[in-house]
Structure formats: structure tokens, C-alpha cells
Amino acid sequence: MDKQQQIYNKLLELVKKENVKVDELLKKHLYTKLGGKADFFITPTNYQEIQNVVKFSNEENIPFMLLGNGSNLIIKDGGIRGIVISLKNLDDISTDGNTIVAQCGARIIDASRHALKENLSGLEFACGIPGTVGGALYMNAGAYGGEIKDVLDYAYVIDRNGDLVKRLASDLDLDYRTSNIEKNKDIVIEATFSLKPGKYEDIKEVMDDLTYKRESKQPLEYPSCGSVFKRPPGYFAGKLIQDSQLQGTNIGGAEVSTKHAGFIVNKNNATTTDYISLIEHVQKTVKEKFGVDLEREVRIIGED
């Protein structure tokens, strides 16, 4: 029996058979519709299954990575070796007084909508962020003046040893589009947000306004990874790209959006190579014209 078959057989002991796939094409699971295959693709249905897989991966020295909905992630065309753990089945959201408890695979948009339904204010800024709760904590997601660190109380994570641990918001080093979650190799599985009572009509008015701003300015008709670059100190990335006359520039099927210069869209069956090449072209051009280094907000992983 080869190593691949041994790993597969062991995973079937840890996760239900229908939730284990081999050579799964990752572009089917990513917001960008980009990416090659995963050796193993699993979709756990509870925290214990995640812990079991992490411990197994550690014992056998098998690399693994986590996947929400891939809204801020580019996976290269060569795909991912080892195990990809998709958290999409863990999407429960509940209310406890003035707090909302959301599992890692729930969309942060849905957490925002749940808060509205419960007349709780504080998550309005997240009503247009496409990522999952786990991904939102990972990068301290934010928009329109709000960010996760403003409302996060604490999270439960599975640490690198496979143990369930509580982390306070202050433990996570949340800063502009960053946290220590990757460095610590934590897996966020649940987050508790501390909100304030509000009026349904007032909360909805804010959310409707932000939704209009998003839909009118962002190229939501095409797959993308959202804002590609972090905001450089003293500048706006989109304005620098626009002033570099880069809107409409394309490499293969990837294009700098004509609607919002800070977005690169998958306009015509782009490959990851197209996408990355265009990102690098934008960085090089902006550096030449304005002397500003654009730092990627989007993560790029996988093999060529």
C-alpha cells in the first residue's frame, strides 16, 4: 500500500467518507476561481474532527492548511500538497445577550445580518466583507472605519498541538490587516463578538448605505480576491494604480478592474500565473512612477 492510500485510509477513520476527497480542484472552492488541486480535501463537521486531523498531521509530518471561502487567498496552479481542511460546514451563529457567537466557517456578512436581526450594533462595517469569521480574525478584516478588533471579545482556537484553547482578543495582536494567528499556527474555530443594543431601523440604514457604496464601487460581477493591496502610509492603493493608468490592463484572463483600481478580477478564465503576473506588474509600475511599494493584502500560497 502506498503512502497516499495509507493517508486516505487514516483520514476515513477521522472524518466521514463523504467529507474526504482526493485530488480536489481548489478553484471550485475559492472566491477567485483560481487554484490547482489538493492532495486531500476534507470538510470536518465538528471541532473534534479538526483536532484529530491536526494531531494525525503532526504525528505523520503531513502539511495541512485551512480554507474558508478563499476570498483573500490565491492558490497557485500547482495546488497544495498534503491536507486542505475546509471549514465551510462549521457555520453556526447564535446570540447570547449582547454577544454573538459565530463558528469559523460562517460568513462574516451573515454574522452582521444576524446582529441586525437581534438589534445589536457593532458589526455593520462587516456587511459587505465576503470572508468567513475565521478568515476575518486571521487578517483583522475591516471596512468603512470598522475592524474585527473593535468588536472581538475572545475566540476559541485549536493550537498547533491539536488542543482547544481560549484566546482573548488582546492575545491575538490584531492590527491593520494582520494578527499573530498564522505565526502561532492557531486554527480559529469560534469567535465571540461583544456588541451594543441598537434600533433595527438605525442599524439597517447604516448597512444599506454601506451595501450601496460597495455595490456601486466594487466589481462584484467578476471573481476577485477583493482589495489586492494594503493601504500604503499617506496614500490610497487604488488611487496610485488609477494614476498609473493601469485600469483595464490585463495579463491573460486577469484584469485591473475598470470599476475599482484596487481590484484585480478574473475576467476570462484566468490562471493563477496570470493573476500573480498582473499583481507584480502593478507593483513594479507604481514603484517606478511614484516610488511607493504596494504590499499585498491577499495571500499567495501553493506550488507553481
From TrEMBL:
Which reactions is this enzyme annotated as catalysing? UDP-N-acetyl-alpha-D-muramate + NADP(+) = UDP-N-acetyl-3-O-(1-carboxyvinyl)-alpha-D-glucosamine + NADPH + H(+)
Q: Any idea of its EC number?
A: 1.3.1.98
Q: In which pathway does it act?
A: Cell wall biogenesis; peptidoglycan biosynthesis
KW Nucleotide-binding (keyword) present: no
Cellular component GO terms held in the UniProt record: cytosol
Which InterPro entries does UniProt cross-reference here?
A: FAD-bd_PCMH, FAD-bd_PCMH-like_sf, FAD-bd_PCMH_sub1, FAD-bd_PCMH_sub2, MurB, MurB_C, MurB_C_sf, Oxid_FAD_bind_N
Q: Does the keyword Flavoprotein apply?
A: yes
Q: Where is the FAD-binding PCMH-type domain?
A: 34-198
Q: Which cofactor does it need?
A: FAD
Molecular functions per Gene Ontology: FAD binding; UDP-N-acetylmuramate dehydrogenase activity
- Cellular compartments annotated: Cytoplasm
- Keyword terms, alphabetized: Cell cycle, Cell division, Cell shape, Cell wall biogenesis/degradation, Cytoplasm, FAD, Flavoprotein, NADP, Oxidoreductase, Peptidoglycan synthesis
**Any GO BP:** regulation of cell shape
PROSITE patterns, per this entry?
FAD_PCMH (PS51387)
Q: Which residues form the active site?
A: 177, 227, 297
- HAMAP family linked: MurB (MF_00037)
The protein's matches in PANTHER family, at most eight in alphabetical order, are given as: UDP-N-ACETYLENOLPYRUVOYLGLUCOSAMINE REDUCTASE
Family membership, please give it. Answer: Belongs to the MurB family.
What functional role does this protein have? Cell wall formation.
> Which protein, by its recorded name, is this?
UDP-N-acetylenolpyruvoylglucosamine reductase
Annotated source species: Halobacillus andaensis
The encoding gene: murB
